[in-house]
């Protein structure tokens, strides 16, 4: 069980709300979807890869068989999923500091939601509603969200530079190269494995890797 | 409302888990519930580049967890319980749902069946078509999806990261060279890294070690 895959942390939080206030939340999210400017605060939280809010109304829990009992919950449940870089505390504090009003809207109507400020009750609320991840996969565990975004800029700039400098004399090439480096000074950096932030996650990874190698050798 | 943000898709699935204890438990696990057995399967899947999900094209990040009940908020809130446990699968990927699920079935048929064996209605899943139908029955619509990254195909993202890594190294190693030496070295860099070739060299999906990250795309 691990909430960590490389530099990404998987958060799951499940919070109840009354079914009729859930419609207000859906309206807020609909506005946020239609008018991306309303989520400008979220964009400043560049540590997020992807996040989502899913409101499950009382009747929406999937029922696949007549043998499966029908759920009879009264509340709607909002499930929040986030993939972010850094520690839990860094993330929750950044959220609370950067978009306190936005958080209050997104969790509007959630039962006993304490508001995003002050931080301590907010921490307690998230902690008591968080559910651990059983299995987490990340396609680029050595990269942060900022690395993914800056890597796109590096590639685009590099391709433009290759086209532009192909027939350049050495001196002109160097001038263009130096301009490229200045342009990319915030984007070029070496990536590598994270420092160990969780001894248990690290141990799980080590064990599963070892087992994987052994299994592979056996099948060879 | 919003499963997509640009070309990125947020898939959220709640699969009801069978209740009780199976009569044909795997050896050594008799008496364990379907939920406990499922957790065991999930928690012993390989990780990083050996993860089964590394074989599924266009998966950025995904997770499995078990929703075994709903959190109680204390008085005066209602105390309520779910009657079934649910396997929650959430995936962030590039592209459309059906091709993604077809790719998942093609790459991971055995793993998919091993996981779904614990879930209600799994008998209906026999091929890619029935797998897609099953997932759609269990899908819940994402209310709001925030994409803080890019929405390119995964092979593009991995090639970008490979180039960022290699170019950063190149810039560091070639400081102080003369213009002609630098130009010559850069020609070698382009030849080696093949910036427009997405098939390789590039980063391998899921790789978490510098000595294993470089490879051909899958």
Poorly predicted spans of chain B: none
Distance between the termini of chain B: 32 Å
* Tally of separate domains of chain B: 2
* Largest interface, counted by CB within 8 Å of the partner chain's CB: A-B, 101 and 91 residues
* Span of the ends, CA to CA of chain A: 29 Å
Tell me the overall shape of chain B.
elongated
The mean pLDDT of chain B is: 95
What's the assembly state of these chains?
A: heterodimer
The secondary structure category of chain A is alpha+beta
In total, the number of strands of chain A is 5
Number of helices of chain B: 5
What is the element layout, followed by pairings?
The complex is a heterodimer of chains A (220) and B (218).
Chain A (H helix, E strand, L loop, with lengths): L3 E2 L2 E10 L1 H16 L5 H5 L3 E9 L19 E10 L2 H11 L1 H7 L12 H11 L5 E4 L6 H21 L4 H14 L15 H21 L1
Antiparallel strand pairs in A: 1-2, 2-4, 3-4
Helix pairs in contact in A: 6-7
Chain B lengths: L3 E2 L2 E9 L17 H10 L15 E9 L18 E9 L2 H20 L11 H11 L5 E4 L6 H20 L5 H15 L8 E2 L10 E2 L3
Helix pairs in contact in B: 2-3
Report on the structure:
The complex is a heterodimer of chains A (220) and B (218). In chain A, α6 runs antiparallel to α7 (170-183). Chain A starts with a strand and ends with a helix. Chain A has 8 helices and 5 strands. Chain A has 220 residues and is α+β, with helices and mostly antiparallel strands. In chain A, β1 and β2 (8-17) form a beta hairpin. Chain A has a 4-stranded antiparallel beta sheet. Chain B folds into 2 domains: 4-138, no CATH class; 154-215, no CATH class. Chain B has helices at residues 34-43, 97-116, 128-138, 154-173, 179-193, and strands at 4-5, 8-16, 59-67, 86-94, 144-147, 202-203, 214-215. Chain B has a 4-stranded antiparallel beta sheet with strand order 1-2-4-3, with helices on one face. A two-stranded antiparallel ribbon of chain B has the order 6-7. Chain B is elongated. The two termini of chain B are 32 Å apart. Classes of the chains: A alpha+beta (220), B alpha+beta (218). The interface between A and B is large, with 101 and 91 residues. β3 (48-56) of chain A pairs antiparallel with β5 of chain B.
């Amino acid at each position: 069980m691990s909430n960590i895959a490389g530099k990404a942390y998987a958060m799951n939080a499940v919070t109840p709300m009354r079914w009729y206030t859930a419609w207000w939340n859906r309206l807020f999210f609909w506005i946020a979807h239609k008018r991306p400017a309303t989520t400008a605060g979220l964009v400043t939280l560049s540590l997020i890869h992807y996040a989502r809010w899913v409101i499950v109304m009382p009747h929406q829990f999937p029922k696949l068989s007549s043998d499966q009992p029908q759920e009879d919950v009264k509340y709607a449940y909002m499930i929040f999923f986030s993939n972010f870089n850094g520690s839990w505390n860094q993330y929750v504090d950044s959220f609370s500091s950067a978009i306190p009003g936005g958080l209050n809207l997104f969790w509007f109507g959630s039962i006993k939601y304490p508001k995003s400020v002050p931080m301590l009750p907010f921490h307690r609320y998230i902690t008591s509603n968080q559910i651990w991840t059983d299995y987490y996969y990340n396609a680029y565990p050595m990269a942060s969200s900022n690395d993914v975004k800056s890597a796109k800029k590096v590639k685009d700039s590099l391709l433009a530079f290759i086209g532009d400098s192909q027939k350049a004399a050495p001196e002109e090439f160097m001038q263009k190269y130096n301009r490229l480096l200045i342009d990319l000074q915030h984007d070029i950096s070496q990536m590598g494995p994270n420092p160990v932030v969780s001894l248990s996650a690290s141990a799980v990874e080590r064990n599963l890797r070892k087992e994987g190698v052994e299994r592979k050798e056996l099948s060879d | 409302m919003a499963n997509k943000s640009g070309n990125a898709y947020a898939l959220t699935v709640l699969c009801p888990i069978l209740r009780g204890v199976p009569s044909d438990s795997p050896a050594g696990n008799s008496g364990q519930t379907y939920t406990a057995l499922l957790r065991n399967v999930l928690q012993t899947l390989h990780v990083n580049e050996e993860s089964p999900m590394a074989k599924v094209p266009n998966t950025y990040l995904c997770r499995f967890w078990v929703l075994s009940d709903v959190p109680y908020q204390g008085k005066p809130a209602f105390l309520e319980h779910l009657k079934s446990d649910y396997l929650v699968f959430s995936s962030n990927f590039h592209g459309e749902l059906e091709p993604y699920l077809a790719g998942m079935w093609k790459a991971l048929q055995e793993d998919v069946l091993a996981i779904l064996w614990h879930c209600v209605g799994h008998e209906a899943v026999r091929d890619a078509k029935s797998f897609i139908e099953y997932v759609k029955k269990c899908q819940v619509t994402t209310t709001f999806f925030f994409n803080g990254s890019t929405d390119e195909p995964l092979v593009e993202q991995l090639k970008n990261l490979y180039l960022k890594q290699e170019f950063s190294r190149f810039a560091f190693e070639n400081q102080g060279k003369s213009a002609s030496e630098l130009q010559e070295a850069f020609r070698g860099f382009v030849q080696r890294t093949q910036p427009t070739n997405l098939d390789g060299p590039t980063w391998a999906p899921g790789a978490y070690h510098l000595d294993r990250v470089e490879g051909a795309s899958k």
